[in-house]
Amino acid sequence: MRFAPEYVTIVLNENFEDAKELLLTPLMAIHYAHLVMLTECGIVSAEDARVLRSSLDGISLDTVRDVTYDGTYEDLFFFIERLVKDSAGEDVAGRLHTARSRNDIDMTMYRMRQREFISAVAVGVLELRLALLDLAERHRESVFAAHTHTQPAQPSTMAHYLLAVVEQLERDTARLAAAYESTNRNPLGACAITGTGFPIDRLRTSELLGFSGPTGNTYGSIATVDYLLESVGATGVLLIGLGRVVQDCLLWCTMEFGYLRLGEGFVQGSSIMPQKRNPVALEHARAIASKAVGQAQAIATAVHNTPFGDIVDTEDDLQPLVATMFRDAARAVTLVAAAMRGADFDVARLAERAGVGGTTLTELADTLVRDHGLPFRSAHAIAAMLLKARTEDPQVSMAETLERASQALLGRALSYTEEDLERIMSPRHFVEVRTTLGGPAPVETLRAIEVSREALRRDRTAWQVRRDHLSAAESLLRERVVGL
Question: What is the pTM of this model?
Answer without folding.
Answer: 0.93
